[in-house]
Amino acid sequence: MSDPVPERTSPLHAVHTELSASFTDFAGWQMPVRYTSDLAEHAAVRSAAGIFDLSHMAEILVYGTQAGEFLDFALAGRLSAIDVLQAKYSLLLTEGGGMLDDVVVYRLGETTFLVVANAGNREAACEALQSRAATFDVTVDDQSDDYALIAVQGPRSRAILEATTGISELSVPLDELKYYRAADAFFNGVPMVVARTGYTGEDGFELYLRTDAAVPLWRALSEAGEAHGLVPAGLASRDTLRLEAGMPLYGHELSTETFPVQAGLGRVVALTKEGDFVGRSAVEAGPAADARVLVGLVSEGRRAGRAGYALVSGDTEVGIVTSGALSPTLGHPIMMAYVDPALSEVGTELAVDVRGTRIPATVTTLPFYRREK
Amino acid sequence: MSDKTTLKYTPEHEWLDIDGDVATVGITDYAAEKLGDVVFVELPAVDSDLASGTVVGEIESTKSVGELFAPVNGSVAEANSAVVDDPSLVNSDPFGDGWLIKVRFTELPENLLSWDEYSALVGE
Hints:
Chain A is α+β, with helices and mostly antiparallel strands. Chain A is built from eight helices and 21 strands. The N and C termini of chain A lie far apart (52 Å).
């Protein structure tokens, strides 16, 4: 047996301990899974706001005169086309057309991009970007250890940020900042990126700044949030929030063995862009015609199908659940699953094998939950 | 709420409150906290026979599924319908209103833990 990998802790670890968080190991990081109750934290994000520590996420800076062209080659999207301070969801593909990671890319300047990768894929994403950079005038710089990431998510998010002491010099006022756009700002004199992005299906912001400013920022946000019902929220609620919002999670819905089109992410691959990009020929050829596709499923009662459970039609296994939970907002079980394409139509009746009991489940449209605008 | 220090425990994080030949069984606060918010509880039917160590019920949270193991050989004298109707009782009062089943047993296993032994097991 090899020695266990030492657990990394967030720059906010002491704050979480103060708040009596329960911790979980997530991709080698010791992160808060909940502070009080998964359901209460979930509900707070839907009705007011939650504050999340996402400092385990990987921040990779890409800069140089050819940074845009490089990302067009290294990623599936056309990143050179986005504006400065615009964000874009993209994919890092393998040569074979599978998904190595899903990332959010922020253009911080004309020739500077921030690629935010999943914590569990940090090394793989960095290695892929490095190896794809060889023929470009570009630097790939893994700054994950120097960045903290705090998310404030929920309908009260903007009011909370506006009331937070210490945030100054916003390049765009928050009431004018659009979804998937970012603003430059300072917090107590420390540069910060304020992005209107998130992973909960609610309005919200993600704040990137140096690790040494993370604790004061968390405290300032918490203080401003008190009057707005802001609660600290852990990874358990983040998972049910993203599932309700129909957002895929790497390792569950996404893998190197899955093509983007199977996951409903065909639109993320810019097949119309000029020039080659890693995975292009494989994606153009596409997966086999009978390759399973991602669907949403709902069932009745309170027993949820979970990741790994089989979906059956008659006596035939026709799919597998990748994520599932009793939806806290909707009150019934929801699942994402890969199923045979012939059985992926909305309204198709299947059954999920919940530890030996077959529970009827119906294919439905994603997302399960959409906020009122 | 039962006095935690006088109960018996299993390594599967269950507690037993023994009164004559009937044991009231629940899961510990440690287990409840590890599970997170409990949203579904399935318990064995009254009068069903239980074999020690076998899975006889389920405790599901938003995050995961926990199994209820029979801690003793015996038969189910009572199942807590209140906790089936309101599974959050497992979190709010694991040693009290969140009890799960009462088992009429023939004999107690020898390997039940005391509160001190159980506390040491979960590192408290």
